[in-house]
Design a protein that fits this description.
It is built from four helices and two strands; from the N terminus they run αααββα. It is an alpha+beta fold. A two-stranded antiparallel sheet has the order 1-2.
Amino acid sequence: MIKSLGPICDVLAAADPNDKAEVYQNLGLRLTYEPGKQLVRAKDQLDPHKLGI
């Protein structure tokens, strides 16, 4: 199934912003943009129970 999506970066770039937000939230990923520095900080909090581990 994943292979049929193609390169994940391309898929996420073209995805609806609301869908991306849901994916990132489910992964425990938080992105913070600092406009003055033109910097995005990424922080994750993986929950093994949500990932089925």
